[in-house]
Design brief:
355 residues, Rossmann fold, alpha/beta, 12 helices, 41% helix, single chain
Length: 355
């Protein structure tokens, strides 16, 4: 797929500068990895590749994933976010790494991560279409901001949809209080596998619950990490009515290589670790699975100067894999997507067309 060349202008330079500030913030928050952690991550990734190969998951990534049913005992409540009142939905995730997987015990020990938390806006009365809106990395803990970026009230009031917004693993209220720094997504490759697999499971479990509510249609949309999760869910679920993946960073090793500090990029151990990541992350890669949702119901948008989800390495690769669905290339970066009228109009048109 050909990606248009961005124009050179002060405005586009500002988009780039904002993205670079975010990249710098990620480096500051996550900090440098100590040698002991790096040793563990390398050794754990090597063991996991061996285990995944023996189980056949690298040859058939879909077989790594089980199919969830709806939650057994969801708990409902209410929460005020700004001036709006949202319903809340909570349920046990129930996802666990397979027996014998490296990192299984650590993942299961992450306190608070097994409880899925969802904000919800739904209409009463006649059945309606539903949309699952999935947040990006470092989100999920500030509802007033998250719901605005995901345009929850607009989707609910203007488009007439029932909207659910799940919090992803290790994010927001699911982040363990003793976790030293954000770890998903990050260089801990086994945690990345488990985080993405659980994210897909949790969203699919939520979709299984939605199917019990007599929906007239079901769609999913997500941005950044949420776009990755939406694309992964599309590769695992039966056909959905519409899938919209925004600025999806679907190739984590490529993203880490591009955004790591130069000293790290030139380090032989980092290069080797990213090669391990290319093998290991196959089991949770949207590029390794063919979605059952047809291409004419799949939509992508990407920023022409996006410094996080690179338009060629990330968005265009997913578009090629999906058989060239409809793609919007907007003149902006990663951070500024939520200010783009082109993006909001593109997403609204896709949802209106199919829900």
């Amino acid at each position: 797929m050909n990606v248009p060349l961005p124009s050179r202008s002060p405005r586009m330079g500002a988009h780039v500068a904002l993205d670079e500030l975010v990249v710098g913030g990620f480096h500051a928050v996550r900090g440098a990895m100590n040698p002991d952690d790096f040793d563990r991550i390398e050794a754990e990734a090597a063991r996991a590749i061996g285990r995944f190969g023996e189980a056949g998951w690298l040859d058939d990534p879909r077989s790594y994933h089980d199919d969830p049913g709806p939650p057994d005992a969801p708990v409902f409540g209410r929460r005020r976010v700004g001036r709006a009142v949202f319903e809340t939905l909570r349920f046990d995730s129930g996802w666990m790494p397979h027996l014998g997987e490296p990192g299984r015990t650590r993942w299961l020990d992450y306190e608070r991560n097994d409880r899925v938390r969802v904000l919800m806006l739904r209409h009463r009365g006649r059945p309606r279409p539903w949309v699952v809106a999935v947040h990006g990395a470092e989100m999920g803990g500030r509802p007033a901001i998250d719901t605005r970026i995901l345009r929850a009230q607009h989707l609910h009031r203007t488009l007439g949809l029932n909207v659910v917004m799940p919090v992803l693993p290790l994010h927001g209220p699911r982040r363990p209080p003793d976790l030293a720094s954000p770890s998903f997504p990050g260089l801990d490759l086994v945690d990345d596998v488990h985080g993405l697999a659980q994210a897909a499971w949790d969203v699919r479990r939520l979709i299984a619950w939605i199917r019990t509510q007599h929906p007239t249609g079901i769609g999913i949309t997500g941005f950044s990490l949420g776009g990755y999760v939406a694309a992964l869910v599309a590769g695992l679920e039966p056909p959905l009515d519409v899938v919209v993946a925004g600025c999806p960073a679907v190739d984590l090793p490529s993203l880490f290589r591009r955004n790591a500090p130069r000293a790290m990029r030139d380090d032989a151990r980092f290069v080797a670790l990213m090669a391990q990541g290319e093998a290991l992350l196959l089991v949770v890669s949207p590029l390794a699975m063919v979605p059952a949702t047809p291409a004419e119901r799949c939509y992508l948008y990407g920023g022409l100067v996006d410094r996080l989800a690179h338009p060629v390495e990330q968005v265009a690769e997913l578009a090629r894999h999906w058989g060239n669905p409809q793609v919007l290339w907007y003149p902006g970066g990663h951070v500024t997507h939520s200010f783009s009228g082109q993006v909001s109009g593109f997403v609204d048109a896709a949802l209106r067309r199919h829900l």
